[in-house]
Amino acid sequence: MLTRRQLIAGLGSAAISGGIVSSTAAFTATSSNSTASFTVVAPNYIELRAVNDPPIHVETNDDGIVTKLTPGNDTGLNEYAITRFEDIVEVHNVSSVALSGLYFDFVVESESDTLSSSDATEIEETLSVTAGSETLTTTGESGDDLLAVSDAESAADGILSSGEESVPFGVQVDLIPDSGESSLSDLPDPNDFSATLRVIVETEE
């Protein structure tokens, strides 16, 4: 029987200045059954670790776990551009069971009266997860499975085995208006919204 768990990774917001977006947001990985809770309830399935050493576009804690996503580092993101950060994070299977699916979605919530729910949806639509050169449909369980799309050898059969097997992913931010679902060319003030990346983990038990 397939079972799905969620790992919640807080992405946070990004600020734009002079045509450049600089992310100062936390990207902390904790497990939860709800997007509203960041309580650690199932930490034994996966861990998020930086692909590169030293880390590029992410920051890690002393244990090597990704704690902050810093797209573009000091240069940030350009307006009117699609910016891709390929293979910057690895999903490690640290459980005792095989994983048969990894799905992602972004949840953006307004933190002020200046952003409506439709504005939050527009921000969500600028964000996607990538597998190598492929951009995933990042809509949770109805979206693309990283294990099915990735060309990583560890996911060749669509299964991520137990015992520290890993598969990389990246992030894409599309700020070309109407090239995708969003009409945004930049991102709002970082104090006006928060964003969360959900990782839905499918296991074979």
TrEMBL record:
Highest taxon in the source lineage: Archaea
Name this protein carries in UniProt: DUF1102 domain-containing protein
Organism: Halobellus rubicundus
